[in-house]
Amino acid sequence: MSEQKQIEAIESALWDRLGHVIDPELGRSITDLGMISDVHVTQTDTDTFDVSVQVELTVPGCPLSDQIAAQIDDAVASYPDATLTPSITVGAMSETKLHDLVADLKAQRRQNPFNKPGIKTRVFAVASGKGGVGKSSISANLAATFAALGYDTAAIDADIYGFSLPRLFGVHSQPTNLNGMLMPVTAWGVKLMSIGMFAGADRAILWRGPRLQRSLEQFLADVWWGDPDVLVLDLAPGTGDMAISVAQALPNAELVVVTTPQPSASDIAVRSGLVALQVPMRVRGVVENMSYYEHKGERLEIFGAGGGQRVSDQLTRALGYDVPLMAQLPLDPNVRETCEAGRPAVLNEDGSLRDDGLGQTFRALAEHLMEQPDRR
């Protein structure tokens, strides 16, 4: 084979190999996205070549540029039929090219991507009748569990008034804005979106009615989620506007009700589940938090007992189908401290799922939820 033919064969093979490099935010091939503008091969010795790759990122200074460059470097350097030395030059797309890319992505998505017929995404809305029962902690740990189990996972902090997910996932950055389309922030394997990620979010938010509903619609329609397997929503406490907005925007959502053992919490938790009588959401089950405190081998029921089962029984009778008590979680100060430090407590420091009681409980909960519900 002539030198020119060999160079052309290598360049063609490299374009194919780069087609397997996926942009971490958009979830698509960097060649399909037009991020590779040129691949040029120069022979330096027998079966030894220099490779110049021109990369155009969607935004200048993209925080994931190093990750993308490393994947390109691996794709080139691992070419099996010759020794290739890659040289990667990183730039940014022109405004025209970026505008065309975003227009193409929006056309493919067509508004809210989660309410289309045949959508594969399972949507779990985590609700509670009152605040302070650990709903957001359970939402965060459930989403982290799905991600650790290998599911492509997204989470929306739909608690507009008391957003917690950025802190629980250790997120301090803002979503990347691509000409009006937002890229969710990824932490611990979960794609996240929260009003708490935006400037001025620490100020009191007093939204009602249409504006509140619009905030959820924006999180669904103006964010590039890709095609996740699971979407977890951390709802605001109670049965107000946001629960109705979720039911309207996500008719396939499945409700998980969180309570604590005492009657003052469980009686109110029932009301959050009874919203399913008015909107097309199925209640999948109940999670009882702060069920007990482990002290010297003894389980102390600090907040009483039986709240989760009471909610389960009442919802089963009212809704006419089985609403099981799916999990009972202990009161554990270490869980709170780990979450508030920015790592979901169900994960080890390397992002893997813990194999102790907490990890096993959340694994069982996630696996149970991913089963298809009994429609009887």
Automatic annotation (TrEMBL):
Name the record gives this protein: Iron-sulfur cluster carrier protein
Residue ranges annotated for the MIP18 family-like domain, each copy included: 12-81
Keywords (A to Z) from UniProt: ATP-binding, Hydrolase, Iron, Iron-sulfur, Metal-binding, Nucleotide-binding
Alphabetical GO biological process terms: iron-sulfur cluster assembly
Binding site for ATP: 129-136
Annotated family: Belongs to the Mrp/NBP35 ATP-binding proteins family.
Binding partners and assembly: Homodimer.
Database matches in InterPro entries: FSCA_dom_sf (IPR034904), MIP18-like (IPR002744), Mrp/NBP35_ATP-bd (IPR019591), NUBPL-like (IPR044304), P-loop_NTPase (IPR027417), YlxH/NBP35 (IPR033756)
Organism: Bifidobacterium canis
Purpose of the protein: Binds and transfers iron-sulfur (Fe-S) clusters to target apoproteins. Can hydrolyze ATP.
